[in-house]
Amino acid sequence: MNKALLLTAASVLALAAGAASATQLPARSFMGSFHLLRLPKAAQILYNQNSNATGVAIDSQNFTSNSLSTYDDQGADDFVIPKGIVWTITGVDVSGAYFNGSGPAASENVIFYKSRQNGEPAGPVKHGTFNNLKGRDFDGSFAIKLPRKGLTLAAGTYWVSVIANCSFYGGCGEWGWETASVLHGYRAMWQDPGNCCCPTWGTLQNCVSNQSGPDFMFDLRGVARRK
Prior knowledge:
Layout: E1 3-12, E2 29-40, E3 44-48, E4 53-59, E5 61-63, E6 74-81, E7 85-94, E8 96-99, E9 107-115, E10 121-133, E11 136-138, E12 141-145, E13 151-153, E14 156-166, E15 174-180, E16 189-191, E17 202-203, H1 204-207, E18 215-216, E19 218-226
């Protein structure tokens, strides 16, 4: 049987152990070690950069603890649909892990964006925002099925963002999206509108950590057809 690869946390630094205390504030990234988790192939893999892990994960989260909503942040990465091809995306898989807590996330949001010519996310794709999805959670690596018939996109460059809905206090802690050491297309982007240093989209290196890779780890599942 064909298999798709995801990563799940095997062990992380002491920072990641246990639930966050009431006096602790969210971190933006963490370093840890991961092991491969194999998932059955549920649909054709349209796009795959779920490999070359750096061991660094970057927070991409809605902090459902109300007092910490200013820490809400978001990662995104690009992908290209070839000319003359139409994709119907039915699932998104991401590699990640929990830290400052052990999860699980209450749900995940998946947002698809158009792309600006300068290599940044533009506005959301029509019908491309999916909130409060419940993907299969493998210790922080998510296999997320899109509702209904998924999302159909024509040829072009797009961005995908995955955001965990997770309470910092009370057990979930933080969710980090694992980064990749190999660049595919544009560098992955991150923003933190209410706090920190990147109120709009910027690269991971400029916004979060010089130790992170240039991209996030994810794949897209679905069906491709010629236009």
